[in-house]
User: Fold Putative surface protein with fasciclin (FAS1) repeats from Mongoliibacter ruber.
Amino acid sequence: MKTLKILSLALACSATLLAMSCNTKTTETETETEVLDKVVVEETAPTVVEIAGGSPDHTTLVAAVSAADLIETLNGDGPFTVFAPTNEAFAALPEGTVDSLLEPENKDQLTSVLTYHVVSGNIMAADLSDGQVVTTLQGQELTVSIKDGKVYINDAVVTGADIEGSNGVVHIIDAVLLPK
Assistant:
């Protein structure tokens, strides 16, 4: 009888341990699945260049980024915050400016203009504050101001904000920023 009790107790302990180990395995599998899902989402999110490339309002910007050989750089790890001027913003520049910038002999000037629109780091709209100054990849600073509920980067109005990519964030602006 005593042997039967010991055997029953041993069997109960074994069953409990088996059940606990099965439950832990399920948790590990669920955690692994959650991590894999996150990795897949991050890998399939577009880069800041792909965001601009997918927008019909940014064809001039994409052509300029290509002419300046910045696609590989801006497809890199980042993170980058890009203030992306629209086609209309480029069209508002003095006549001939865009064509001149796109000429191969003006590549350095074009690169300077484009990198003046990019800040290192992931700056969301909620992170921007009136009077804030951010340093661009070009080396000069941009000033943030908030007037009448609108966010300005220098004199450009942010018309679309927080378009997140795998390597940064894009904010759409209504003017081309020109370095001093």
